[in-house]
Fold:
Amino acid sequence: MFVEQILPVAHERLVEIRADVLLKDAARLLHETQKSLVVACGSDGSMVGVVTKSDVVRQIGSCLGSACTTAVAAVMTQDVTYCHPEDALEDVWATMNERGFLHIPVVDRERRPLGVLNARDALDALLGEVKNQESLLRDYVMGVGYR
Structure:
């Protein structure tokens, strides 16, 4: 199974913001969309980083509340672990599990965001595939549909 097979679900989780806007705008997006991660993009539309709710809380703690004029670029994680639609979902899940990620951006070859893969969605898809393979194997062993 590949990431592209659950890309429609990942696309629904995608929230983008320009890296040069204020962090309070990213905070507003995180709140309004009920998402945990916002993908920060450069002027060409490619991903340059991500901002999480934790990043916002950490920065607001050192700002003067709503008067914070910090840009997204100053707070975002720039060294982002991401995946491509053609990556094996099992490999992406292993990376997420190993690093403790709940979300990972899905990007194209030019690093333009296509979606945000959620660990629960990945696990559900992988478990669904295993159940399907188990059913097929059981049918084969039992001779169902064969003469």
The chain has a mean pLDDT of 88.
